[in-house]
Amino acid sequence: MDKISNFGIFTLLFVSSLTIMVGAVIAPSLSGIVEHKNLGFSASWLITLPSLGVVLFAPLVGKLLNKLGILKLLSLGLVPYAFLGFFGAFITNDYLLIIDRILLGAATVAVQVSVTAYIADFFSGESRMKMIAWQGMSIEFGGVLFLAIGGVLGEMDWQFPFYIYLIALLCLFLVATILPKPKGRIENKDNTETKESKSKFKVKLIFVSSLLAMMLFFVGFVTLPLYLPESFHFSKSETGYLMAFISLIAIMTASQMPKMVKTFGAGKTVVFGFLFFMLGYLVLAATISVPFLVLATIFIGIGFGFTIPILNHMMLESSTLHNQGKNLGLFSMGVFGGQFLSTFIEYFTDNYTAIYGFAVVLAFIIACVIYFMFEKLSKN
């Protein structure tokens, strides 16, 4: 197998940053989109409909991974990602716009699954954990960069943030010219069957944990673009900066993931992540000042950094070559399914304090339950 260069690693991390961008990049200009598009559905669906597309197409993409190969699947994801995202700015028909955003999710899961599988092929052990941590950091750095840019562009024109999707074409060029082709590995059949039988419960637990973690994380992304202008009189760019700050904190937290896992174990670190979500929404529900608002975003960012990157690594470690595509597709379903579920929280009430209070209770209950589940798993 060819050794991957530092520029190749950069390419992997750059492509990984597209996954969070799929919905979040237009979040700061959501109010402007509402003003100019006569939408027959909730504007927040524009952020979360790609997540539904991921859930619907993840099983298919998981199967295609072994049939098409990693690089071909990655390339087939990047092209529609660029054009479906870009053309969303010009579609006026509600039904076509919904289909466009759902298919954008299909392209996104192809990108996510293939990049993670590529990392699994080229790295193992502690180096793989570091790469997964870097991947989590790059995803959130994409949030920092693209949310900030999206906020600035949204101030200029509500359609401009959609142009950012075209960056996937640059990623395609880098993939085609920089990344070496992975070679197939052979895994012992007996070891594969043993590992698969032991990891079934763990895979289900990782799936549920990733779904709930991303749902809690995206409660903020769905509500803050409307809550901040209404309650704190933030501009679009200020909203983008604050949401980007959440991603910046997540980057710093994800960088500490290997140390946390080494010290406390993966399961307990995930529990800590849910407790930080709880603290973040507790402060957000009670705050009436900007300093406490910043504190809340710090806690929420830490919650992401201690959950999603670690769960991603755990899913890889629980997979074999035989079921890797299926399990990575399942992980994508959990992550983006959580994003999509966060949309529906606004249908329960339009009181943001009540929404954030509900998130506090939910995060605490989840932390308690998965603590006992991971403890049970570690004893078996």
Lay out the secondary structure.
Elements: H1 6-16, H2 18-24, H3 30-36, H4 45-68, H5 70-87, H6 94-122, H7 125-156, H8 167-178, H9 189-232, H10 236-254, H11 257-264, H12 266-286, H13 290-305, H14 308-317, H15 324-342, H16 352-379
Helix pairs in contact: 1-7, 1-8, 2-7, 4-5, 4-6, 4-15, 5-6, 5-8, 6-15, 7-10, 7-14, 9-10, 9-12, 9-13, 9-14, 9-15, 9-16, 10-13, 11-12, 12-13, 12-16, 14-15
Description of the structure:
By secondary structure, the chain is mainly α. It is 80% helix and 0% strand. It contains 16 helices and no strands. It has helices at residues 6-16, 18-24, 30-36, 45-68, 70-87, 94-122, 125-156, 167-178, 189-232, 236-254, 257-264, 266-286, 290-305, 308-317, 324-342, 352-379. The two termini are 36 Å apart.
Distance between the termini: 36 Å
Sequence stretches where pLDDT stays below 50 over 5 or more residues:
none
| Rg, nearest Å | 20 Å
Name the helicity range.
over 70%
Q: Helix and strand string, N-terminal first?
A: HHHHHHHHHHHHHHHH
* Beta-strand content: under 5%
Shape: globular
Main sheet: strands, sense, barrel = none
Distinct helical segment count: 16
Helix- and strand-based class?
mainly alpha
Count of beta strands: 0
What is the average per-residue confidence, as pLDDT, rounded to a whole number?
A: 85
